[in-house]
Amino acid sequence: MPDLGPEETARLCAWLIRQPVPVIGLAAQGPSRLADSLDLLVDGPEELDSVTSRIECFPHASAVLVQVLRTTSKLDMANALVVESLAYAALQGGTEFARWLTSQPQRRSHTPPVEDIVMLHRQGDDLHVVLNSPGNRNALSAAMRDALSDAFRFATQDGSIARIEVSAKGPCFSAGGDLTEFGTMTDLAEAHRIRMLRMPAGYLAACRNRCTFRLHGACIGAGIELPAFAARLVAKPDATFRLPEVGMGLIPGAGGCVSIPRRIGRQRTAHMAILGEAIDAGQALAWGLIDAIAE
């Protein structure tokens, strides 16, 4: 960068952070005084081309994503979740999400309802929470959402619970949002109201210091957004992590714009979300997205 004085650098940083589009930097050796003002860093021209191509395909979602990440980094969790939900609602009414919906085959749920979609087991001071919908890869359906909210609300209200351990049955921890339910809510203001009342993120954040999540297989969208609130994440070596929402014209909406940046920073969060590529357990551990790999 040019040899700028402190005042010029501060003005440039303030200008960069106000831009309504993603601000991308090429990674360089050594620290940069502008680094904190950038939305994401790329390693070279090839990765830059990949990122810019994705932004060109989903400009609205990409722009809203980085603006939300800038804002939520300055807020407490409760207020940050409100900002995320409002931005998510705005994008649900946008052309990029409509285009994605149109491109999808007719989506029907082929999974029969599960009576105990989330199982709770109390053992002494420990509460075990188990996602139990392997037929749809533990997707965050409305039923799963409500059951998890009830479980974490119960945990916040019962101070005698010292430890909360969350795991899942089936081939993966969670494949993310239930795609068969996407686009079914037409009143987006009501959708925001429901998220504020019923999304598990708020309840989970309130008891996060007592929570350990044990992850395996695919952890997609909500499947990593919710666990990232917990104090400790332990993953099996086969675990992979992905944020696909920008490619749907949306942003992470299960709390990921709040939980994940607090673990790996907003630049890596933007990198994950804009590219939409999976990272493995080793990379997740190196970044701090998880805390340990369990053999």
What would you say this structure looks like, in words?
By secondary structure, this protein is α/β, with parallel strands linked by helices. It has a domain of about 170 residues: 2-enoyl-CoA Hydratase, Chain A, domain 1. Strands 3-4-5-6-8-11 form a six-stranded mixed beta sheet, covered by helices on one side. Strands 7-9-10 form a three-stranded mixed beta sheet. Strand 4, helix 6 and strand 5 form a beta-alpha-beta unit. Helix 3 runs antiparallel to helix 12 and helix 4 packs antiparallel against helix 7. The protein is globular.
What is the CATH-assigned architecture of the domain at 100-252 and 274-293? Alpha-Beta Complex
- Our Rg estimate from Cα atoms comes to 19 Å
Beta content: 5-15%
Poorly predicted tracts of residues? none
Q: What is the mean pLDDT? A: 92
CATH topology annotation of the domain at 100-252 and 274-293? 2-enoyl-CoA Hydratase, Chain A, domain 1
Task: Give a quick rundown of the structure.
The chain has 295 residues and is α/β, with parallel strands linked by helices.
